Amino acid sequence: TGVGGTPVPSLAPPITLLVDGKQQTLVVCLVLDVAPPGLESPIWFSADNGSSLDAFTYGPSPEADGTWTSLAQLSLPSEELAAWENLVCHTGPEAGGRSQRTRPLQLSG
């Protein structure tokens, strides 16, 4: 845990919200054991096809046990997100490097 630990990403179930009369879907990825501030530990989402989707990232924040946690959120129009079959959260080196990832979250019917 802490520096040198393996980051552990997990996806929360999607939440659908009404924003300005339109449905938006919010997906949150919580990553435990991220690198402390000053060290790179990016978080990104993909459609499980090598793509990279923009997300807002918060943290890292210190935990009581000395580890660090980050949170990333992705918010898109529900109809756009429904066009994807799967969503994956990644953390670690930028796309192309070896990263930790969640299991694909199935978004379509």
Helix- and strand-based class? mainly beta
Rg calc: 14 Å
Count of the domains: 1
CATH homologous superfamily assignment: Immunoglobulins
Predict the CATH topology.
Answer: Immunoglobulin-like
The low-confidence parts are none
CATH class, anyone?
A: Mainly Beta
Major sheet characteristics: 5 strands, antiparallel
Give the helix level as a range of percent.
under 10%
What order do the SSEs take from the amino end to the carboxyl end, as H and E? Answer: EEEEEEHEEE
Count of alpha/pi helices: 1
Provide the residue-averaged pLDDT: 84
Architecture per CATH nomenclature, i.e. the level-2 architecture: Sandwich
Distance between the termini: 37 Å
Number of strands: 9
Shape: globular
Approximate strand percentage: over 45%
Subunit structure: Heterodimer with TCRB; disulfide linked. This heterodimer assembles with CD3 proteins into a signaling-competent pre-T-cell receptor complex. Interacts with RHBDD1.
Keywords: Cell membrane, Disulfide bond, Glycoprotein, Membrane, Receptor, Signal, Transmembrane, Transmembrane helix
Protein name: Pre T-cell antigen receptor alpha
Membrane topology: Single-pass type I membrane protein
